[in-house]
């Protein structure tokens, strides 16, 4: 489809660009108080546009084969849009952020949002690279947005160095694919790859590309930036980094690998790695390392944000476990889990923001007595933590059951299942460290709690999904199944 | 013994220049030396583009990297106070395992490169590429072209925000 015809399928993205540009102009015209309303209305309209777009299951190429328009990408776009919109709402109530830069903050988030949308449906090497950069570069700025805070500066610098290194390696891997096929479209490249005689070339380009994608989803051994960046960035930004870019990273990982490096050249067929290049074993090993590192290092953390950073790494490990099966069920499991993960992780982070706003605490032991100080929200926080740990009766349990089910159904990597079960047990300890601190410690907090209605509502709303999806998970699961 | 093709000799010389000066960039303790070595790397890359019949890219490489970015780097080095006696506090660790690992990676890549049937264009067109680039940028690659402009804009806004002083 040519450029002009494609625009009708690109309206949500166009609106986001418009929004980012117009709020900057509003700021220049000293109309700052309109910015928030403008952003809310814009994102609402973008969601409406996303609703009315029809998305066929097989998908069709738009913009001369740069992007694909299919239902797989729409599902990820919804996850990304919901989490980003909630972050924009919460950011208005964070005491950490400087009001002076609120417009730039919103503009950066919107640019990242555009990049993540493009990540979900890029099918051209050029667009894959550009969309990842469009997510990364504003993220570096967001990590360092507290200009006078040493930790924030450090976080930003570390993010830049790690990020440019990883994207350099990925670019090198992509250049191998171009060298073999002379094309940047991944469907064309697949046709050339199918004719390749030696698998070595596929191994090397695959590993290099995995570095680039793995860095975005903080897969071990590329997770080193995660704890430092999460700790140093403002908590709102950390909450943002921990969900939406991960979802986009998984979208691009699943799409690129399923199309390029499998026998089927398609998302919707159970398949095997191309030319017996056993990359699913590589992913399985990396998944075991990722979840173990995330969990074991989370045990020792005192800082809540740092602990949640490691917990994010371990959740990524669990999702990679389903990815290593290279089956449709595995992809459905990841998409299902990402929806659950968004709600539980964001509600936990919003509670951290609420506690930081009110009681100015950073470490787990300082959370003591919060269970009595803000009783309602604490109950919801416990619910989110239980869900993160993957215990019934919460959605985290259902999500994890599906991840395990896909692994055992494909009858490979039983050892990975055992590692994952052990890891689930370990994770109970550090999530309940917060619960213990909240309810069973003596310390009395003097400060009075000041409840901000939107923050309160969002915590309750997102946390309640943990119960709701425990009861009505089958609807979501069948919906996702219908997308393939 | 046949005399090797002059073009190939020149190419090998260029490769030596690029790799050698890139090595200087990372190993030289003096920042000014590093910056000047970078000049030769950038020029060498521009020459490689000419070998690939990519005349426009070669010119852009010279204008943007040599003319723009490198001059900026050298200005930055010169305008920074006390850069001469700045001590680098972090030490280099694990040199031997690192060298071994990267050596193995290099060998693996050599093996893969020589065992792959690359797509070779036997009859490259030896005319100017500017017109094709223009047509592709506004035709097939219009979307990436626009996305790049958004990316640069976001980088610009971010840089301006981070470097701006607070107005009272």
By CATH reckoning, the class of the largest domain in chain B would read: Mainly Alpha
* H-E order of chain B: HHHHHH
Assembly status: heterodimer
Major sheet of chain B: none
The dominant shape of chain B is extended
For the largest sheet of chain A, list the strands in their spatial order: 1-2
What class, by secondary structure content of chain A?
mainly alpha
Strand proportion of chain B, as a percent range, falls in: under 5%
pLDDT average of chain B, as an integer?
Answer: 86
CATH architecture label name of the largest domain in chain B: Up-down Bundle
The beta-strand count of chain A equals 2
Radius of gyration of chain A: 22 Å
Tally of structural domains of chain B:
2
- CATH topological fold name of the largest domain in chain B: Four Helix Bundle (Hemerythrin (Met), subunit A)
Low-pLDDT runs of 5+ residues of chain B are none
Q: Largest sheet of chain A at a glance?
A: 2 strands, antiparallel
Structure classification of chain B:
mainly alpha
Which geometry of chain A do the CA atoms define?
globular
Number of distinct helices of chain B: 6
Note down, in words, how this protein is organized.
With 484 residues, chain A is mostly helical. Chain A has a domain of 197 residues. Helices cover 73% and strands 1% of the residues of chain A. The longest helix of chain A is centred in the middle third of the chain and has 32 residues. The mean pLDDT of chain A is 89. Chain B contains 6 helices and no strands. Chain B has 168 residues and is mostly helical. Chain B is extended. Chains A and B meet through helix 2, helix 5, helix 6, helix 7 and helix 9 of A and helix 4 and helix 6 of B.
